[in-house]
Amino acid sequence: MPGVIAQQGNLVLVDFGRDEDKPVSKKRLALMLGRSPRWVEYRVAEGMPASTDRRGRRIFAPSECREWLERQKGAAGG
What we know:
Elements: E1 4-8, E2 11-14, E3 24-25, H1 26-33, H2 37-45, E4 51-52, E5 58-60, H3 62-75
Antiparallel strand pairs: 1-2, 3-5, 4-5
Helix pairs in contact: 1-2
């Protein structure tokens, strides 16, 4: 099936070709990373890049966040 990334039981993860540089919400980023919104908040407190939109809501560039997470992983010796 085109676009399917992984399939486990009834759960199918699909990549719809979302632009990695388009800002997303905390909830969307958490879904993209397979983590909880609270986990994202902890990473922001540790320095993960985030900005705010016109309404003051925190938004994230997924590609920047993934790069930051990879750097943190490397710095931790993992």
